[in-house]
Write a structure and sequence with these properties.
The protein is 68% helix and 0% strand. The protein is mainly alpha-helical. It is globular. Helix 2 packs across helix 7, helix 5 packs antiparallel against helix 6 and helix 5 packs parallel to helix 8. It has a domain of 98 residues.
């Protein structure tokens, strides 16, 4: 019986994952949204109501940005407006999330010979992942507007990096992702470097005996030559053309608010409400202090991320694109001024594509510490938000512990990683 169930769960993982999502997307809101079981807590994500309200405005011939707090691409609301029922948007997100899971399974199968048991492991990474299922069934659009275009671009850049059409199509997918959700712009340099890779001997090996300054200048000259090759130029051009074109179209259709609310707002966003970020507490304290310049503080927080971004793009992406993107996303989320649960899916969809030893004792301990920190944070946040206790410092301490656990986990993962060719990495 167990063998039969294992076979079905492996053979029909995509279909079962989709059915599971669709059922839970229908059942759980009806069970929990009336707040009978947990007073004050509803299952449906508040963002889903924002999406559907904006779509309703479009159906009425109005601007989707008339809906307060709608700060997404207007084309998401326009897409939902075409559905016969706005609530069907939740099921559309589930389909997109299932496609993400299918891409992850295909990616892992391609990069090593997979038997039946390993295929089931592949499915558990996303198709049967409780967090991924929870995020999409609650009504989050992350899988549709961001994760699917990002994974598609990774697939193209990894498997067809020497093709002109791949560079063009990859740039278009990347442009869609950045227009829909600004954060994938951090991947741009890594994608360009992946298309700029050559079969030459490692730059570092060639200049091992040179001085540091000479090696640095030679490295810069070499990368300038590489980045000016046709394929990276085609990718960059198609990406910029798609991103700018979609943004201009949005402005033409829905006015300046499409630019302000859908794009520029995210550069200046400062959220003082408690969240997983360790920065929320000082933002909370400084919101009423006119002396503190929150905008400059936010920009300073980007500096360490920028340094790490350039390093991983030039040093890792040409060898292992998936690893570079995972490290960049993980660090970006950990250092961000705002962190919510859906942000975790940004790097969790890339984690299965990396060649980490997940059975390492150090990794297991790091994961246990991270889960403990999450439980600590959730309990602290519950006391603050649901019970009304004045435990702001406790929640902040939990956020700091969570940050430390994230850094510890990344160190543990990297200690087990073997960086090799983009197409030859062994996946466990």
């Amino acid at each position: 019986m167990i063998t039969r169930l294992r076979f079905l769960a492996t053979k029909h993982a995509v279909l079962l994952g989709l059915i599971l999502r669709l059922f839970l997307a229908w059942f759980l809101p009806r069970l929990l949204d009336n707040e009978r079981f947990i007073p004050g807590v509803a299952y449906t994500d508040i963002d889903f109501y924002v999406f559907t309200d904006a779509a309703a405005y479009i159906q009425q011939g109005q601007n989707p940005f008339n809906r307060a707090t709608y700060r997404y691409t207007p084309f998401l609301a326009a897409l939902l407006a075409w559905l016969p029922n706005l609530n069907y948007g939740r099921y559309l997100f589930c389909v997109a999330d299932t496609l993400c899971g299918w891409l992850i399974v295909q990616f892992r199968k391609q990069r090593r010979e997979a038997d039946e048991s390993s295929s089931l492991t592949d499915a558990f990474w996303w198709l049967y992942n409780p967090l991924a299922i929870n995020i999409c069934t609650r009504g989050s659009a992350e899988s549709l507007i961001v994760l699917l275009p990002v994974l598609t671009t990774v697939w193209i850049a990894t498997n067809y990096s020497q093709s002109t059409w791949a560079a063009l199509l990859g740039g278009i997918c990347h442009g869609i992702a950045v227009h829909a959700k600004l954060y994938p712009i951090i991947y741009s340099l890594s994608f360009i470097c992946a298309f700029a890779k050559t079969e030459e001997t490692s730059i570092h090996d060639q200049r091992a005996n040179q001085s540091s300054v000479t090696r640095l200048f030679d490295l810069l000259k070499t990368w300038i030559k590489r980045l000016l090759q046709p394929l990276p130029v085609i990718f960059a051009f198609s990406f910029l053309a798609t991103f700018v074109g979609l943004t201009m179209l949005a402005v033409a259709m829905y006015g300046p608010s499409a630019l302000q609310e859908g794009l520029l707002y995210h550069f200046s966003r400062v959220d003082h409400r408690h969240n997983y970020s360790m920065h929320w507490y000082w933002i909370y304290l400084a919101r009423s202090d006119p002396v503190l310049n929150m905008a400059w503080a936010g920009r300073l927080l980007l500096l360490p991320q920028l340094i790490l971004l350039v390093y991983t793009s030039l040093g890792i992406a040409p060898l292992d694109l998936s690893l570079a993107l995972f490290v960049q996303t993980f660090l970006f989320v950990a250092h961000n001024k705002v962190i919510t649960a859906q942000y975790f899916t940004w790097y969790l969809c890339l984690l299965p594509l990396c060649s980490f030893d997940f059975q390492s004792r150090r990794v297991v301990k790091a994961v246990a510490l991270l889960l403990t920190s999450v439980v600590f944070w959730l309990l602290s946040a519950y006391l603050l938000e649901m019970q009304g206790w004045a435990v702001h410092r406790l929640v902040w301490c939990a956020s700091v512990v969570f940050f430390g656990a994230n850094v510890n986990l990344l160190g543990a993962l990297l200690s087990t990683c073997n960086v090799r060719s983009n197409t030859k990495n062994k996946i466990n």
